[in-house]
Design brief:
The complex is a heterodimer of chains A (358) and B (384). Chain A contains 7 helices and 17 strands. Chain A is of the alpha/beta class and 358 residues long. In chain A, strand 13 and strand 14 form a beta hairpin. Chain A starts with a strand and ends with a strand. Chain B has 384 residues and is α/β, with parallel strands linked by helices. Chain B is globular and about 65 Å long. The chains are: A alpha/beta (358), B alpha/beta (384). Chains A and B meet through strand 2, helix 2, strand 3 and helix 4 of A and helix 10 and helix 13 of B.
Chain lengths: 358, 384
Amino acid sequence: MKLIAAMSGGVDSAVAAARAHESGHEVIGVHLALSSNPQKYRSGARGCCTIEDSHDARRAADVIGIPFYIWDMAEEFHEGVVENFIAEYAAGRTPNPCLRCNEKIKFAAVLDRARAMGFDGVVTGHYAITREGPAGKTLHRAVDESKDQSYVLSVLTIEQIAGAIFPLGDTTKVDVRKEAKARGLYVANKPDSHDICFVPSGDNAGWLHQRLGSKVGPIVDQDGAQIGEHNGAYTYTIGQRKGLGLSVPTIDGSPRFVLKVEPLTNTVVVGPREDLAVTRMIGEKTVWCGPAIGPEKNRGFVQIRAHGRPLACTYYFDNDVLIAELDEPLFGLATGQQMAIYDDDRVVGSATIWQTQQ
Amino acid sequence: MPVYLDHAATTPMADVAVAVMTQHLTKVGNPSSLHSYGRDVRKDLEGAREEIATALDCHSSEIIFTASGTEANNTAIKGLFWKGQAVGRNVVVISSIEHHAVLDPAHWLALHEGAEVIEIGVDSNGIIDLAEIEDLISRRGDEIAVISIMSSNNETGVVQPIGKVTELAGTIPVHSDAVQSFGKIPLSFKQLGLTAMSVSAHKLGGPIGVGALVLRKGFDIPALLHGGGQERDIRSGTFNTPSILAFAAAVKESVQTFSERNERVAGLRNQLVQGLLAKVPGAYINGETAERVPGIINATFPGTESDTLMLLLDGEGIACSTGSACSAGVQRPSHVLLAMGHTDITARSSIRFSLGATSTSLDVEQVLRALPSVIERARMANLR
């Protein structure tokens, strides 16, 4: 096959590209420039699109022996990921930008462009597995549970999964690093990237403040009594306990948590942990990674964070929404998070949470 | 072997240059030493200087060897500015289509040394606006420290009227970046009336890592590199003798083959241009009706993006370039094409094919065979 290997400059995508090349595919390495004004060097483990990263990607491509190009996706990234991230927070929700990047950039803009140019698919260093089955290619969890990235890929459609190649799904991270070293790739020991690449400081709240401005509002308890003040409701996440700066303690000294973020009134509602309990979540904008399901109830798992644990649930799709009913209550679930449904290790599909119920 | 159509970036070394260089790599002796070893290499070195001086129609003492064309440009622009600044001249005049090796030192002077940089515009063919220069000189001539206009443009190949610039400038020092012209169009330092001129070896069959600044006799400028004072105290550093000798060998051959080679390259260029225009509807050549160096073609393919084109051409075994990339490797719209009136979009739809001494008719045919499908796929990829 003719493949585009998306190379971030990290160890995973380098080994993925090397494996694809070695297995006889015609591979071209592409580094996505996602910032129109990239920093020169990585600072710590954050950021994934500095000039240093593009040099690392190029060096890896040269060592592997494949052509290498840089694609400027800064505009698409800004529109599809960064603006969405800001808008979601402004609306009181908690988005996951890595997931949007996979949905709108890596397996949309890049895959579309690759296909138009005559390529068959896109190779990435994601830890996930695809399997050919009677219903086409399906998406599954990686062998390395601690690195499994099927959650951030749960936004891919069947069409997109058909064009996705994940050579690392059967390998542990430890072994990928060993393989990189054996292949003479000098990124073998490069630290993993964490957090959000376009917030290099790691200070999400500060970054959002710069873009959304500060707007003082009340922090209230469930009865509506004001017990504190904040600089912008959008920097709070449901379930958050730290950094509330409340002046009025609870009678029994028990901690308070963010229960609700109300963007219209710029209000943050706090209360006891038990009020965070959620047993039912409802998601919109459902994406199917395999055959679609209907209103009949299924047993499986739902995952709501990239490295969260799978939660046993009953799930079904009814009236255009995806519903998961949890066996055990969950504490601290924010709207805007993605709910990914699993049938054992297979990703059924996912939806964006717009409502939770106790 | 892939077809190499990026001779303007660097062109293969001439066999004679390789022979001279390898032969001298084993020879010991610093040309600045007074003993017999030193004298031996000094003799060769000065012979090389004379060879190059003859080709450029200047005095051999006017040649200052540097490590690159970039260094020659930096030395000239900064040195001429500082010389002028000492007598109250603060303005640096360049064109809007200069290579970064001129643009960047000029703007560095603005940022760090208080210079005022004025950029002269170009017409849609990429030729500098002489009326603008004339007007500027008539109003502010006594403020200008240096005028630097390239001899021919690296992206489009368009030749600039340097003789007319020096005529207008009178006693104002004029520098010209002639890196893309040397070996391709006649260059007479004397007749052009220049104060300074930059050339580079690897654009005409010499090795990478050696160039020269031609600086008028008696017209000394402050140095960038201080040290042993080897080159008129304007450029210090031990002479890179093997490279300088190979440079001279390449120049000698370039002079000997000048007419035959340039006619042949121009013929190939015309073959490529005609084929390209016939096979790709909507395509056009930038600077087409202007006088150009023989080997450079800058073509716009509407509806495509240059980075896609290069990837696809690479896949077809064709090496070409855009002539402009930022340090991150992201294609930016060319400042040269923007200055010629392109929009961001059409500037990003343009690539450069550059031919040289080793180019053949088969190279051109391969490009013309690959082009229609490449353009079609690039246009599809652009419909996002």
